[in-house]
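Dear colleagues,

I hope this message finds you well. In preparation for our joint manuscript, I am sending the RNA-binding protein (Paenibacillus lignilyticus) sequence together with its predicted structure, so that both groups work from identical material. I would be grateful if you could confirm receipt.
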Amino acid sequence: MSLIAGTTMKLKLAREVSPYGYFMTDGESEVLMHYTELVGHRPQIGQFYDVFLFFDSEDRIAATMKTPLIQLGTVARLAVADIHPRIGAFLEMGLGRQLLLPLSEQPELKELRPKRGDEVHVILAHDKIGRLVAKVAFEEELAELAFHAPQAWHNTWVEGWVTKTLKIGSFVMIDGGVIGFGAYGFIPADERTRLLRLGERVKARVTFVREDGRVNLSMNQRKEVGRVEDSERILTFLKERPNGAMPYSDETQAEIIKQKFGISKGAFKRAIGKLMREGLVVQEGSWTKLTEQAKAAAVSTSSASAADAGE
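The corresponding structure tokens are as follows:
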């Protein structure tokens, strides 16, 4: 039998060496369990105990009775406790010590990397020299743990953690609650209101439950709801603009619309269309302007508000 860091093993307490702790053995090798790693009652020499093996601050294999949040080769969602800009993110693994998620495991774009408080789905592994390290869990590992989303989820809002974020969209492990590990979902790029970090907590609406149990997601309201909210936001924006006009229209690039209003170009066009049908705005080339009717209504509302405030 060999002592493998990252695993829980049943070892025999061989001897106590003060002031360090206890030496545990598998019959061939020994490993030190410091006094600070004890849990519960004082252990007895000659008895067997389940201990987790890890590397201490001097890269020596050591044992603990504390229960880790992850085991070698398994998937777990771990919280980001600290960030080192040149090394990577340090994850809390439940032992009073942290596990490194190297930069090489993270997105190339800095703004897509996890921050403190984010939670990342990872696998515990060994690096090239045998030290414990976290690796981002891939779709195939997560899919094995995910349950099939029920059809009742359609058009409901759910929350989860981003497991991968790409140009085409972001993958999310939706909270499973008491049901299990979670359900797997995907937010297409045009259904994101912003770029999402690896490990970021996100709220999204289930737009479609697939036959394989996965779901399509959107960070936007349903079209009929979103159209009202978006049109009100654009109308307010126009009323605050000089002469009630803005240099954005159906001709404006989607990236600029997303940056300015936080919505897709499709949502923008639906909102503008609603305002045009109501006679509140017109489009002239690359500009959108309030109609005289809308300007008059805005002035009337402003005057009424001023009168109320003076009473």
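For the figure legend, we might mention the following. The chain is about 20% helix and 35% strand. Residues 44 and 159 are 47 Å apart (CA to CA).

With kind regards,
E.M.
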